[in-house]
Request: fold
Amino acid sequence: MKINVSGLKNFVSPSEIQQWSSQVAQAHQTLTQRTGEGSNFLGWIDLPEQITEELLADIEAQAQKIKEKAQIYVVIGIGGSYLGARAVIEALQNNFASLQERKAPSIVYAGNSLNEDYLADLLDLLDHKDYCLTVISKSGTTTEPAIAFRILKNHIERKYGKKEARERIIAITDKEKGALKTLANQEGYNTYVVPDDIGGRYSVLTPVGLLPIAVAGFDIKKLVNGAKDMRSIVLANKNFANNPAWQYAVYRNILRSQGKQVELMVSYTPSLTYFSEWFKQLYGESEGKDSKGLFPASVCFTTDLHSMGQFIQEGTKLLFETTIHVAQSHNSVTIPFDEKDTDGLNYLLSNTLTDINQKAEEGTFMAHIDGGVPQIKIEINSINEISLGQMIYFFEFACGLSAYMLGVNPFNQPGVEKYKRNMFLLLGKPGVKK
Reply:
């Protein structure tokens, strides 16, 4: 994975880079020496090196048991408890996996909203399919997943009986305490631990993400190895020129200081849509505090060029773009010859769709620079477990750096608690007062 900032040469000066370089060096020290706010949630920094072969083998064995039992695997969680796994699974699976014969269970998600029709439709589906489920919650009392688990626990016990249901339920929760841990102990569920020092949005490389990814049939060892690769790079290179995380954190803070308010994550690959969703939660929840932070948004081109392209090109100059560039596709599709050429496409006969898509990317890159929109590119060779592991660790580390440079705690989310309190008051939850 590489960072390409050729699209910033007209927007960022060497003096600005010099000014911010000392700040990113200080942020690096704060992060790695664990001296900043939220330092008790920095377990993810060393996590790739601490994941044991025994844990990976255990997760893969558990995943195999689920594959043998289930047509559907339900992942119950919200925020980081499902977004990281979904980002990786949807990036790696066939675009039409739900319509194909499958060697692995179909992965579906619950507990990430309170929509009644969604859950009713899921229950109707599960009436007719064999399934297993994993509930992910450190406390077991987060409203959305707790409601979904109560309903699905009731359903799976009625469908299979309590004894068999216990074999089909896995809890990923706190090591020692909490409502879900207590229930898991009482019922005898298989369990995995959410480490105390890793928050939800940094948890994709824990069993929170690794188990669903393994059930989906992907190589979690390669994913972890990709993260190890990036960890080595960003920890070893304590200089701006050779550290991609330093560069990304500096450039986005320079652009913010210039008045940019929105970072637009761009992909030209629909399978990366949920990777952008994971990115949005990671940066939005980490930086959006004290009336600070860039607003993370996302688009998928070329699709969204026909809806958002006009605003990006000529609208209010409030954003910059960070594009994930994928050099190679897994497949090749060419345009067939048409003798009449009524659509005028015969001139493209020597190109694959990847060639054409990349020319669209280059043309957009040039047009948006001309339109005053700064460009950062994150370049990977292809979408696979290694490259996704690298990007996960890169964005996590750069997020910690960037937030400390901004002057906020990257690892809390006090604003989220306010809507919960209001909701509990409106619902009349016992013990909640104005």
About this structure: Residues 2-35+223-415 form a domain with the Rossmann fold fold (CATH 3.40.50.10490). The chain is about 50% helix and 10% strand. The two ends are 50 Å apart (CA to CA). The beta strands are 2-4, 72-76, 106-110, 131-136, 169-173, 190-193, 262-267, 295-300, 319-326, 375-380.
